[in-house]
Amino acid sequence: MLSALVTPAPDATVPASPAPTLTWAGNRLLRESTPTRILAGSLHYFRVHPDQWRDRLQRLRDLGLNTVDTYVPWNFHQPRAGEAPDFTGWRDIVAFLTIAAEVGLDAIVRPGPYICAEWTNGGLPTWLTASGIPLRTADPRFLEAVDAWFADLLPRITDLQANVGGPVIAVQVENEFGSYGDDPTYVSEVARLLRAHGITEMLYTADGPTDLMLDAGMLPDTLAALTLGSQPGAARDLIRRRRPDEPFFVAEFWNGWFDHWGTAHHVRGTASAAGTLAGIIDDAGSVSIYMAHGGTNFGLWSGANRVDGRLMATTTSYDSDAPIAEDGTLTPKFFAMREVLGATEPVRSTQPEFLPPRRIDVARGADLLAILDAAADASHPVAATSSFEELGADDGFVRYTADALLPDRDVRLVFERIADRAFVFVDGEPVGEIEERGEIEVRGHGTRARIVVLVENRGRVNYGSSIGERKGMLGPVLVDRRIVQHWEASAVDPTSFDVDARRRLSAHTDAGAADSVRPGFATASFEITDAVRDTHLALPGWGTGIVWVNGFLLGRYAEVGPQQTLYVPAPLLRAGANEIALLELRRRGGALELRATAELGPEEEYVEEF
Predict the structure, then answer these.
(1) Contact 98, 45 (CB under 8 A)
(2) Helices 93-103 and 140-158, axial angle in degrees (round to 10)
(3) Rounded to the nearest 5°, which phi and psi values hold at 14?
């Protein structure tokens, strides 16, 4: 039998490490020498409210799975440099894995340090990617940071390994490195750090099913898993040619796909997804369904991609057309996959129930410029170009202001590089928007005009060579051909809007604002007199912005869709009075609505192929 690990000769002075639970031989995965296979589903604790972890994990078990796999986003636990990582509350990965074990699931942990996952910055902290250190390389400075992160994270995982009585049966080494770079030692260095911090269970790499990706992603004596959405037969043939003895393990089977704002809602037919799944698990194949339950990109955590050079931001919903929908609904795909997986235990989970539909009136508060005056951090003089990172800002917004001399005629304000989107005001009036670059024509009066440019970070790139790119006003603003040079900038962090801040913004109503559709703040309230249940929030007539529910930053909304409703988990609600607050950047609409079903937009069939 070939082991998945190569263990040096034992040293009598050093306690022997426990043997890994999983090994392999002859294209078969073995668990303590008995043939087995992994039937896993991806479910991310950071995309599911902690009060719903048990419910969603039980739904995985009901699907016929024996394992849950989850990424660990570094930036979710340590968003600020110099602060100890947070593993409490929503970030309590030990609690999540413990519940998985109680439900009867094994676990796979994917600690990165890079995870992709359509999560902002691919899970890497902004303070690290802005440092200038080469990313995802064996550069000692990058590895030192990873080592420190692993030193905090991995002791929480080692005590939960299966070979010491816990649920964790495997740990992934980095993530799809073969589609990113070719540093010949980086992946092996990450594996070394995992071992150094106590991981003794099976390690594996995961890459797309092409020679190019496998060339840079695989490691000797480490299981080489694949990520794919189709053509499992060709993928099996490819890996068998390169690793004749290894079992076939699809570490991500893309049975659906995520959405970008302004596109269609991606779906995959039930028969197509179930058929590919059957092809994967044929001949003792192992799989992790990505996603088994997608969940939600709450707050400002959704990522983005560069598509043909254009930034495409990921939606708040991460439903991903998974067999277990974002709101927990068991879909037709769930039952078709359950049959393919050969599940025989009865389904214990029931279909979720939702609040009755209703309409909710809205009260308008401060206009957007007044909000910025009240909520922005202290202003700092900056050059003609300036990034979020120079101001120590991460997500949210930066407000740039300048007094520019405008000739007494129509003139062009030219924006050479905005990352990502700018809302532009001249002398208090909104004059237009810019995405990445462009120009706006305004009327000058031969005097200085106050220019306000509110730049929005729509999500940091999570995949490819643009990971770590900066946000902000990265190119100058010109009046025709003349650069506006003297700016002040201040960060606006919506995650810091506490209850008092929201109340001030709600109470601060400018003259005429009660009837205004101008961008700004708004609030709404509603009562729950019966059972507290999930719901879906719709914002008909609103433009784009962010929304809080009972003080929790639910996420972004945008009229371009595809999603038209935002999922609101029941744990965010309460019996009695509930508050909704909105920061609208374009156009305040009318009444809000609670709906009993998700509306994720016009559908488009999508199957990822290599």
Answers:
(1) no
(2) 40
(3) -120, 125
Active site residues: 176, 252
* Cα 90–Cα 92–Cα 93 angle in degrees, nearest 5: 115
pLDDT above 60 (res 176): yes
What does the buried/exposed string (b/e) look like for 115-150 if buried means 16 or more CB atoms within 10 Å of the residue's CB? bbbbbbbbbbbbbbbbbebebbeeeeebbebbbebb
Model-level pTM? Answer: 0.95
pLDDT tens figures, 373-414: 988 899 999 999 999 999 999 999 999 999 999 999 999 999
What is the token pair recorded at 13?
């002075």
Distance CA 418, CA 401 (A): 15
Between vectors from CA 417 to CA 414 and to CA 418, what angle results, nearest 5°? Answer: 100
Question: Under a CB-based contact definition with an 8 Å cutoff, are residues 573 and 585 in contact?
Answer: no
423: tokens are 């809302």
Strand partners, 484: none
- With b for 16 or more beta-carbon neighbours within 10 A and e for fewer, the 358-384 pattern comes to eeeebebbbbbbbbbeebbbeeeebeb
465, exposed or middle or buried, with CB in 10 Å at 0-12, 13-18, 19+? exposed
DSSP structure class, residue 537: E
Contact 416, 522 (CB under 8 A): no
Enumerate residues 6+ apart whose C-beta is below 8 A from 536.
327, 354, 565, 566, 567, 568, 594, 595, 596, 597, 598, 599
Q: Are strands 438-443 and 410-415 parallel, antiparallel or unpaired?
A: antiparallel
